[in-house]
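Quarterly update from the structural biology core.
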Amino acid sequence: MEEETQESEQYNFEEDYESLKKQHNLPDFEALAQDFDIEKIADKEPLFLAREIRRIINEKITAYIHLFETLINPTAPPMFVFKILKNMTEEEKKEIQEFYKVLSKAQIEIMKLDTIYKEEDEIKFINDNFKIWQEMKSKIHTLFESFQTNFENGNIEKERSYFD
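Predicted structure, tokenized:
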């Protein structure tokens, strides 16, 4: 009994990942960890590692979908979002809609993958969406920099509020 406990305490997520990576040509562990925080899986010993990695990727996709939905269709958003929306260019709006479309396709794929488990499909999702994220992340970062600049340069006090 003690041997089983010690064995589970010695679970090495990175070794399991490296084995899966070699079998399926996955991205480097560090790159996935930087972009998607996959190291959170290290706390448990998953039976289906590829599925767990895909679920971690899903967390980030879901968060960004929610953010972009708020920017596309703001219904009771936080007040700072109105300031961002007011200063947003048409090009930024188009970019947000494109990001939303790409991430929504991934979300639909995630729902499909949750119905029937196939490791090959999970691996394909991880590889495809890692590549998509590499293409999108610098554009999203630039978009957020623009939001930050516009927000900091605006004067909130001059704008009318609900109570004026």
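Confidence is low (pLDDT under 50) at residues 156-164.
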